[in-house]
Amino acid sequence: MFYFMNNLFSYKNIFLVLFLVAGLMISCKEEVQPIDNDNEADSLNVENNTDNSMMFKLPSPVELYIFLWEDDVKFDGTLLNSTETAGNYITTYKKAINFGIYSSDLAYCTVYGKNQQTFNYFTTAKQIADDIGLMEGFDETFAKKIDENINNADSLYKFSTESYSTAITYLENIEQDNLLPFIITGAWLESLYIAINSIDKFSFENPTIMRVAEQQMLLENLIDYFITLPKDEQINELYNSLLDIQDSYDKLYDNVEEIMTEEQFNEILSKVNKVRNNIVS
Amino acid sequence: MKIGVIITVFVFFFLFFGSTKSSYSQNCEKRRFCPENFGERYIYNTQSRYGTLPMGEKKRIKTSCYSNKRYRVFVCCDIDFGEVDYKVIKQIRKNVKKIKQIRKDTIIDYKLDEWGEIVYLEENDYQPVEIGRKIEVDTIWENARIIEEKILFNSKTNTTEKNYWESSIKKGHSIIVEVAAPPGDPDIDGCVNIYIGSRSLSSKRFGTTGKQSLHY
Description:
The structure holds two protein chains of two kinds. Chain A is mainly alpha-helical. Chain A contains eleven helices and two strands; from the N terminus they run ααββααααααααα. Helices cover 63% and strands 3% of the residues of chain A. The N and C termini of chain A lie far apart (71 Å). Chain B is mainly beta. Chain B is built from one helix and eight strands. In chain B, the strands form two sheets. A four-stranded antiparallel sheet of chain B has the order 1-8-3-6, with no helix packed on it. The chains are: A mainly alpha, B mainly beta. At the A-B interface, helix 2, strand 1, strand 2, helix 3 and helix 7 of A face helix 1, strand 1, strand 2, strand 4 and strand 5 of B.
């Protein structure tokens, strides 16, 4: 054994190893290709297809709730998905999409300063997050922060929005992000459901109508994102539901002056309610 | 035996340098660059993206801008990684009418009586009498969806003092941030921060305290 070691470290072998390492280093160095980064047009490009290498980032549902709050829309607790139904969701798909729904409800409660409900919805969202193995943003540290600031609406707003963003950022950065499409769809859909059902009576002057109409661009981005995903039964089901809502939103393109007609509003309302209620049931 | 130690050190030396090929990209989701660009009262938490990008690669990220909000977008990376170029592109989806088909039909005019009925004469074997022909063109339209893209900001050609894109949005639209990593070995990744910040134009309650921005 000692003889073998001595042999191994002979000068001859050392030079051989050095030679091999140097050879490997040279062969691994690739030619640097300059990137072609100036195929831009000064004015307008037109394209029709969805880019598979594109990443998508939807604005957080909290932004829509802030608009509602700013427009003096009243808080309606009956629109929330009851925390008592959280135990009914068995499959990972159902849990992920309802985690999105509860996270959105949590954001709604924090924006309106409903501290006790914020605590309840954080606890429920955390419970589902634990079940699906999502610790980022919904760990004990955040739970403690929420618990300690139960009487401070501004801190609750800060920590609860931070926990959602942390969870989403984490999922975006890991390779197995198969929960992400369900979570962001659930969160977005719930915000639209709450916004559209907060409108008592249709009126062109109602600023919330514009916010509901603006959800068209978020829906289009969400659908573009779904196009890039590998398809399975759950993705297809959700994708088809989104396409159905988009069919109604597409009619807004025909409008000349008004952003949305009452008929279009009712059609979108009906479809959103149907899809959302199917998810939470 | 000393030589054995030297070789071991030598091998570890190379292994170490091998591993540092991608060391620019460690803990990228937590590293932040360009804090001087944050501005006042912007919230970056909800739409920004922090991750890695290989040298020589381009990435596009698409998001939506709400109306009645002010947005600031910029991209920064680890100074050792190099300099990233980026563009902010406005995307507008439109439904336009396109010609699907042009149909040409031949219309035959027949001799009519005083009541406007077609005349069938015995000398014409009781067939209608043709008095002329004309071609009628019928255009069939269809709705097609197109996407228009307009470059709002290009870091390469930007000559202003502001090295970011900033705008108050009147009508909501989608934007794409296209990021190009510096040229080089594609095996080397670098940390890149794509900052998309927004603030309300009408309310200060849901901004940040004082003049701070919110990011983490």
